[in-house]
Structures are given as structure tokens and as C-alpha cells.
Write a structure and sequence with these properties.
heterodimer; A: 303 residues; MetI-like fold; 2 domains; 15 helices; globular; B: mainly alpha
């Protein structure tokens, strides 16, 4: 309402005490941001410093000169990482598309107030949220195994085809669309499919973007089930490959090997891979931030 | 006003539901009924139906083993640390962000604090292990530079809960602050104007308007977190722990993974998983009923 004018009038009258308070708040936030950014700055710096500098522990904050792109050369020369990247793209694109399709198709009928199966579906979907991920772990694995899906790309796609939570969230969003709109469209002779595709979806851009993004991030960052289901290196996503690199580097550390040439290389590849795998998400999320904010508030209102 | 109830029975709507029903039956309901293998001595060669019944033997085995106390304690300790140390952080962060007057600056701060949320656990755990390493980690390099002995943080039992909690704070504070920021923008600005007319300073406005308006959200979120106390974020623990510090880092979920998927002890692990589910359910339902009483209009599920 009058939010802007209220804020402005407050900022004009600032007592010295308040100005000092403001200063310390900004200082605090800068400190928090430094802590939040430091690990990533460190990785980026290490990835462009020479392997020798990493080995000599000379990378602390900024890159150590001479700048070396050796690590990236190693990463791009490493077939495992290419394959992992391609697989991650595959799981992210097709996985998210499948997630959205199943979610929309489930949420739409559930949002129709006069649909006979509405109550049943709500219960049918909601119940599955009560079983914890830990309780489901072994049984889900055994089901995927007995379906013969272990070590197939399909397993990761279909075993997580939709999240009950996001179905309910999407349904809540569809419910905010006035029922009359459906009725009018239906009276005009449009089929339910036409209503969904031509009326509902064009109105749901923000909700689709929000929920699609949640799915996308989960697909991109997902590690555990990919590691459990898929043992063939040709089908593993980047996170699994990355984890192996990290474990290898860590083992070298624990065994206290006097780090040989190979150890240094593993270290450098690890940093560059972290950068390469994280960069796409780090570049896009600032622009999509508002959708996440929307999603959180949508979820907290009607969870 | 009551129109004749013409319930839709359009087959098209049911056709749309086919994918989700198929998915839920196959990958949710069949696994849910699959928890029955915890009552059987399951053998992959015999399959589900032919494996012999075993009663509550696996539950008895788990409850009487040393692992029961250990994993339950670790799970609850990590949950309690979260509630005590991590839970307040997003509230502080939201209050700080909310008091930044320049929108551009506020946006930058918020973007930076959200960054760790979008980075995968694998990467975060990898960096953490690196920074804490005894020979190459920055923290130990610093310790050595001021003449202290390096500490192998990831191999000492006592550090794990703190490391885990710190990483949770690091990763999720910015994200969890969003809810509070949303609640803060919903406060009626005329309240502040009126307070200002009455001569209330910044501090007085915080304690008299901001905090009371935020309290319902804080309590609600707290109850949600208590409800989730048993289900510690599994992937994070798994990626941070190692065999040397299992005594303080093994939680119920990682134990299920180790025994079930690594050890192929399916029935036993499923029994432990079922115990976790029931335990978590009791906690969630009680937290929810308190929340209901607290704010009877809202429900956590």
C-alpha cells in the first residue's frame, strides 16, 4: 500500500544512533557475505593456480601467479568428466520435463472442485509424504532392482517422476484460478485437455517456473540415488564423478602420501571440476531468485 | 445459491491421472508395502513371497545392539544442535537484510547469502573437507602460522556435530531467511509510521512491532523443524562422514544405507528404516498438533 512512502520518511529522519546501527548491520552483512563467498573464491583461485602452487599450499585466497589453465586443460581432456557432464544434462533436461509433465497432469484434475476423484487423489498423494526417505530407502531400491532398472538411465527418471509435495503445491496454485473460467471454457465446448493446455497453463507461468526450478536444481545436484542406482561410469552424472575425484584426493591426504605428480593432478582436476559443474547454476540462480522466493511463500501459505 | 451438484466424471481427467497413479503405485506404494520384508528373513534368491517370516526378530536385534543407542543419540544430537544453533540464524539474517534501506544493496546481500543453497552437497562437503584438512586446509595453515599444532578435524569424534551444524548454517540460512523476509514485508507499514509519530526509536520499533509480528512465523517454523528432527538431512551427513568418526556421525539414515545397501542386509535395514519412519511420524504428528493449537487456522501438511 503505502509501503514505499513509509520507508522513505523513516530514512530521512535518522538519528546518529540509528546511523551507527545501520553501519554495524551493513558491516555484519558484509562479514556474512565474505564467509559465504570465501569457499567458492578459494576453489576458483585454486583452479586457476598452477598445480605446483596448490601442492605447496600457497593458495589461500586469491589465485597464485602465474595463472595456469592447466587444471581446465586436464578437465577438458578427461573423458570421465565430459561423460558425466553429458549425463547430468540428460538427467536434468529429461528429468525435469518428466517431473513437470507428471506434476501438472496430476495437479490439474485434483484442483477441479467438481471432479469426483478429487478427494481420493488428495489422500492418495498426501499419504506418500508420511513415509520418511529412510524408511523407503531399502524397499525402493529393491523395487527398482526387481524391475530390472538398476544401472539404467530410466531408473533415475522414473523412480523420481514427481514429488508429492510439489503436486500439492501445484494443485494449490491451480485452485487459485477462478472456477468460472473453467466452466465458461467448458460451456464453449472445449475439452479438459484444451482447458488445461490453452487456459490453465498460459496462466501458470510463475508456478511452472518455480516448481520447474526446484526440480531442475534437484536433478542437477542430486547425488545419492544416482550413486546407488547407477554403477556404469558411462551413465553416471557429474556429481557422482565429482565425488569420486574428491574421495581419491582425500584418500591421498589420509594415507599421507608424499603427494606425487598424480596426486597434484587429481587435486587440480577436482577444483576445476567443481567450478565447471557449479558454474551453470551459479550463473542462472540470481535471475531466477524471485521465483524461489515465490515458491517458499506459496509453500508456507498452503503447504 | 446451491446449484445442482454436477460432479465431473470426465474420463479425460482420469486419463491425466494415469501417470501419477502409475508412478505412486510403482515407486511409493509398492515400496511402502515392501517394508513388510522387515518381518521376513528376506533373501534376494527366494524373493519377497518365498522368504520365510521372521517376526520382530530384526527389531529385537536392532534395539539390543550397540548401534541403536549410538545412531539414535547422534540423530537427536544433530537435530538438537540444529534447533539451538542453526534455527535462529535465518531469523537474524532476515532482520538484518530487512533493515538495509537501499534495495540494490539488499538484493546483493540476499543473492550472496542464497548462493550456498544452490551448490550441491557433493561440492560443499568436498570444499569443507579440504578447508579442514590437516596439511593443506586453510584453517590448519592459519593455526600453524601462529604456532599451533594442526588438527585433523574430520578424524576426531568431537568435531563432527559442530562441523555438520556449521555447514547447515552456511548452506541453508540464506534460503530459510526467505520465509521470514516474506513475513516481514507483510507487516503493515502504517504501524511503523504511527510508532514513529509516537517517538519510538529503531530498537523500540523492533521489539514492539517487528518481533511480535514475526513471532507466529518463528513458532510455526520451529514446530516444523522439530517435526523434522529425526530426518536429519541424510546426504549431507553421508558426504561428510568417514569411517573413523562413525561413532559421532552415524545417524539412523546413514546406518540404514550402510547396513542395507552396502551390506545387503535388506530385512534388518528395512526394520531400522521402519523404526525411523514410525518415530519420525510420532514426532511430526505431536509437533503438528501443538502447532494446530498454536494457530488453529494453519496445518503443517
Amino acid at each position: 500500500m503505502l509501503r514505499l512512502s513509509g520507508k522513505r520518511s523513516r530514512s530521512i529522519r535518522r538519528t546518529p544512533g540509528e546511523a551507527i546501527g545501520d553501519f554495524f548491520i551493513i558491516l555484519g552483512l558484509v562479514a556474512i557475505c565474505v564467509i559465504m563467498l570465501y569457499p567458492f573464491v578459494y576453489v576458483v583461485s585454486a583452479a586457476i593456480s598452477s598445480p605446483e602452487a596448490i601442492r605447496a599450499n600457497r593458495v589461500v585466497f586469491t589465485p597464485v601467479r602465474p595463472i595456469s589453465l592447466e587444471a581446465y586443460r586436464l578437465v577438458f581432456a578427461d573423458r570421465r568428466i565430459w561423460i558425466g557432464y553429458a549425463n547430468t544434462l540428460f538427467y536434468a533436461i529429461f528429468g525435469t520435463a518428466l517431473n513437470l509433465a507428471v506434476t501438472v497432469l496430476a495437479a490439474y484434475p485434483m484442483s477441479r472442485k467438481r471432479f469426483r476423484g478429487r478427494k481420493f487423489m488428495n489422500v492418495f498423494v498426501s499419504i506418500t509424504m508420511f513415509i520418511s526417505a529412510t524408511g523407503m530407502m531399502i524397499p525402493l531400491f529393491l523395487v527398482v532392482k526387481s524391475l530390472g532398472l538398476l544401472n539404467t538411465r530410466v531408473s533415475l527418471l522414473v523412480a523420481f517422476a514427481a514429488s508429492p509435495f510439489f503436486i500439492i503445491l501445484m494443485r494449490s496454485f491451480f485452485e487459485t484460478i477462478p472456477e468460472e473460467l473453467f466452466e465458461v471454457a467448458r460451456l464453449d465446448g472445449a475439452s479438459e485437455w484444451t482447458v488445461l493446455l490453452k487456459v490453465v497453463l498460459p496462466m501458470s507461468g510463475a508456478a511452472l517456473a518455480t516448481i520447474g526450478l526446484y526440480y531442475l536444481i534437484n536433478r542437477w545436484n542430486g547425488y545419492f540415488w544416482a550413486m546407488v542406482f547407477i554403477s556404469d561410469p558411462n551413465k553416471q552424472p557429474l556429481q557422482v564423478v565429482l565425488r569420486q575425484l574428491i574421495v581419491v584426493a582425500q584418500m591421498g591426504e589420509e594415507l599421507d602420501l608424499s603427494i606425487d605428480r598424480a596426486g597434484t593432478t587429481a587435486e587440480a582436476i577436482k577444483y576445476a571440476t567443481i567450478v565447471v559443474s557449479t558454474l551453470p547454476i551459479a550463473l542462472i540462480y540470481p535471475f531466477l531468485q524471485k521465483f524461489f522466493v515465490k515458491g517458499v511463500t506459496l509453500g508456507s501459505i498452503k503447504g | 445459491m446451491r446449484r445442482a451438484k454436477s460432479l465431473h466424471d470426465d474420463p479425460a481427467l482420469w486419463i491425466m491421472l494415469i501417470p501419477v497413479i502409475a508412478y505412486l503405485v510403482l515407486f511409493r506404494y509398492i515400496p511402502i508395502s515392501g517394508v513388510l520384508i522387515s518381518l521376513k528373513r528376506f533373501s534376494p534368491f527366494l524373493g519377497f513371497w518365498k522368504s520365510p517370516w521372521n517376526g520382530l526378530e530384526y527389531f529385537r536385534q536392532f534395539f539390543s545392539s550397540i548401534y541403536f543407542e549410538r545412531v539414535l543419540r547422534n540423530t537427536l544430537v544433530l537435530g538438537a544442535y540444529y534447533l539451538v544453533f542453526a534455527f535462529p540464524m535465518p531469523v537474524f539474517l532476515a532482520l538484518m537484510l530487512n533493515s538495509v534501506r537501499r534495495p540494490r544493496l539488499k538484493k546483493i546481500f540476499q543473492t550472496v547469502t542464497l548462493l550456498p543453497h544452490f551448490v550441491s552437497f557433493v561440492v560443499i562437503a568436498g570444499i569443507a573437507i579440504n578447508l579442514l584438512s590437516p596439511r593443506t586446509g586453510v584453517i590448519n595453515l592459519f593455526r600453524q602460522s601462529i604456532g599451533l599444532e594442526p588438527i585433523f578435524f574430520m578424524q576426531q569424534q568431537g568435531f563432527f556435530p559442530f562441523i555438520y551444524t556449521f555447514i547447515r548454517i552456511f548452506k541453508e540460512s540464506g534460503y530459510e531467511a526467505i520465509v521470514y523476509l516474506a513475513a516481514l514485508t507483510a507487516i503493515d507499514p502504517t504501524l511503523y509510521e504511527a510508532a514513529e509519530v509516537d517517538g519510538a526509536g529503531r530498537w523500540r520499533q523492533l521489539t514492539a512491532i517487528t518481533l511480535p509480528s514475526l513471532l507466529p512465523t518463528i513458532v510455526l517454523m520451529f514446530l516444523v523443524r522439530i517435526g523434522n528432527i529425526v530426518s536429519v538431512s541424510f546426504e549431507e551427513v553421508l558426504l561428510l562422514q568417514n569411517d573413523v568418526i562413525l561413532e559421532t556421525s552415524e545417524v539412523i539414515s546413514t546406518f540404514v544405507y550402510r547396513r542395507g545397501l552396502l551390506g545387503a542386509d535388506y530385512s534388518y535395514a528395512t526394520a531400522v528404516g521402519l523404526f525411523e519412519t514410525i518415530f519420525a511420524l510420532i514426532v511430526v504428528v505431536s509437533a503438528n498438533s501443538i502447532a494446530r493449537r498454536f494457530k488453529n487456522a494453519s496445518s503443517l501438511w
